[in-house]
Amino acid sequence: MKKRFIRFLAMAAATAISISSSGCASADMTVRAAAKKKTEAREDKDEGRSEKKHHSKKKIKAYDERKETLMVYMVGSNLESEIGAATKDLQEMALSGYDPDEMNIVVCAGGANKWWNTSVEEDDLTMYVMEDKDIVPVYEMENQNMSEPETLAEFINEAKKDFPAEDYSLLLWNHGGGSVAGYGADEKYGYEMLSITELGKAIHNSDVCQEGKFEWIGFDACMMGMIEVADTLKDDANYMIASEEIEAQDGWDYSVLGDITKENAYNGEDAGELLTEAYGRYYEENYHYVPDYTLACVDMSKVDKVKSALTAFARKADGALAKGDYSKIARARDNTKSFGRDGNASLYDYVDLGCFSREIEDLYPEEAAELKDAVDDCVIHNVTNIRRASGMSVYFPYENTDMMENMIKMYDAENYNDNYSSFIHDFTGVLNGEEIIEWTVRDNKPTAKEDSKKEFSVKISKEEAENLSAAYASIWEKDETDESGETYIFWLDSENTAVDEDGNLNADIDGKRFFLTDDSGEKYPIYAIQTESTDEYAEYVTYLTKGHMTGDTSNVSIYIRVDDKHPEGVITGIYELNSAEKIGYAQKKVETIEDGEHLLLSYFSRKIKFNDDGSVEPFDTWEEAGLIGNEFDVKGQLKVVFEKPETEHDYIGLFDIRDTQGKSHYSNYININVD
Predict the structure, then answer these.
(1) What angle do CA 338, 344, 349 make, to 5 degrees?
(2) Are 254 and 89 in contact, with CB atoms under 8 Å apart?
(3) pTM summary value
(4) Residue 277: half-sphere exposure toward Cβ, Cα within 13 Å
(5) How sure is the predictor about 50, in pLDDT bands with cuts at 50, 70 and 90?
């Protein structure tokens, strides 16, 4: 698989699409939030705390010991204030059919400017217990900022004291930013987040963990299924349940709580199986365009083995960097499944550990085998529709070079693994250092294969081949409405390329393109950027706008997969994007496109510059040509097809080559005819 960093940001800006995470913080907000900048709101809170005379309990009865007390730390944030996601999950819990004589559900709910129910107090942070399909306030929290470790510890201690049980489990609900950015963005306090170190200290120093440990700790939050998070919490819980990927807005399916009490599944392994299976089943049964999902249960007693295997790799690879193995390691990293992407951009640089172990098998077979076995042993349940997602990820900086320096500083501050941190410092030192070689491919004109109008190649040197990370055949078509004849429309980036033994980078363009269609049978061309490619499948992304330009609009990304089961393509997810003006946290919002909705299709176009001899000037000198587009009303169900156009087309093709230092190099162009 090849994973590429976004190239067409200019297009996105031109169509008012801003690339940001559909489930968590944008890269900018992530750094600002995790840096814990002090806000005016926090200062106001500190002043207000001194004025409070007391914090009262409203509990009117003592609660007998149950088999389990489930503690839910629910930082509502904009997920609640904007779309009522926390309220929906509280309703799911209340109506799940769980047995209150066996399980207490205790909730600390706050961190949102608005709540979509009348039970949660908006002005003060309060602890509640679930009773009679509602939540009842039982304690007014001393601390108010949910992104402070003291607040989480206070909640755990009060819940344990007032709601005794044989076992305790902790559910952390809200935004997640993984090992770098942390967890829990409090909307009332400038979207501050708990770092993983702060989270770990709050849990470890709580009364539950001073006397024992949690049976399981779960994250209904994005991208928390990481080795760094598990390592931080391994001594404080028997199991961890978390997702490697961005979660959709509905999060976990809490109707399964009834099954947990019915089946007496209080053991973390049994609860983890029910919770993960319910999670996958929910998205398969309730979404027509099923979003990417993954939820895994980790045996915390096996985490040290994973950490040890990662350390062994880091030591081996760090030494190999000095021997010139950088590009080999970089290619393995680029081929690994990554998470937290937005469209074709990876914002967080989190990669799957199991997948990575397979990518380094040829480089470091012993270390790869140790890492694979450790991950397989540690992850006991993993429910996912993402191919090559093993259930546990790690931070491996490579794609997001703009934020890399700040993210590594934040990562260093957590002190996860000295050996691994040393490796990523040395690795990124080469990544961001002087160019390994001077590339000359931009001066080369592709040539067509004999007797073929669709197969073409370009010559690259041995050094270029050794430092090539990914190569894409980029297909453009002349805009016939432009009288100057200079404007070309982008249609496809395809990774159907390979370097042969003679040093030729080859592409085979079969003429297929993507079209949106519906029940009317009409077809509307769209451009597509390939984001992943394996022997089993290829994935693409495109962008469009819902609504009329004179009214309300929303910008969305559409994900498409082509595989043996869907050779003509299938839509696998539709996600809302933030507008360019919206800085901060995006909703974990999965979009739908329904019958009758109006769609605006914008095409990325450029005025190609040609030299006097007919050759094309470098891609980065091409001028933006403005907006070209199409529009239509959806009739019935929106679908996608991947096929040849019905009429003959003349294209130009060129190679977009990404080297192992993340730089792009464009070849000259060649004419392509598809009949």
Answers:
(1) 35
(2) yes
(3) 0.89
(4) 11
(5) very low
